[in-house]
Amino acid sequence: MTAGGAWRLAARRSGWLTASTALVWLVLAGPAHWLSGVTGLEGLSIAALLSLAPGWLVFWGVAAASGVPGQSGQSMAVLAATGVRLIFVLFGVLLMKSMRPDLGLREFHSWVIVFYSVSLMVETLLLVKTLPKFASDDSEKQSAAKSDLVSAS
């Protein structure tokens, strides 16, 4: 994979993760407001951002590491994604607990669990999904198709 292809793939993966997080946020906004009012929406938003940021870090980290020999394994990317997400969210929850002790189970912690699970699932699916063909592959196909046409004439 070319360096440009790796960065495009990271951008595409980040976009899918962001869209799925926004969709989950929209689905949960009603229940969060119903349970805890504006504080519930605030906790829901913080939980969404805590789960979104490590996904971006992993996708861009995988793109940066794609040029390093021996760093193309999907299993290592999934393992790194799980570790980064766990550490990032754990420290984020601890930080929020010290800054905003009023955000409890109904206002924040339950939403963190939901976003953590959903975004980890989406991130893992995006990491293990087969890679699409890039421009270099397309140019090889076009030249092969042209040579087939010439040989058929």
Task: Itemize the secondary structure elements and their pairings.
Blueprint: H1 3-36, H2 38-65, H3 74-99, H4 105-128, H5 135-152
Helix pairs in contact: 1-2, 1-4, 2-3, 2-4, 3-4
Would you kindly provide a written description of the structure presented here, covering whatever features stand out?
This protein starts with a helix and ends with a helix. Helix 2 packs parallel to helix 4. The chain has 153 residues and is mainly α. 85% of the residues lie in helices and 0% in strands. The protein is built from 5 helices and no strands. It is elongated. The protein has one domain. It has helices at 3-36, 38-65, 74-99, 105-128, 135-152. The model has no long low-confidence stretch (mean pLDDT 80).
Distance between the termini: 34 Å
Mean pLDDT: 80
- Kindly state the number of beta strands: 0
The radius of gyration over CA amounts to 20 Å
Question: Which regions contain 5 or more consecutive residues with pLDDT less than 50?
Answer: none
Helix percentage: over 70%
Order of SSEs, N→C? HHHHH
> What fraction of the residues are assigned to beta strands by DSSP?
under 5%
What descriptors fit this protein?
single chain, 153 residues, mainly alpha, 85% helix
Outline of the structure:
Helix content is 85%, strand content 0%. The chain contains five helices and no strands.
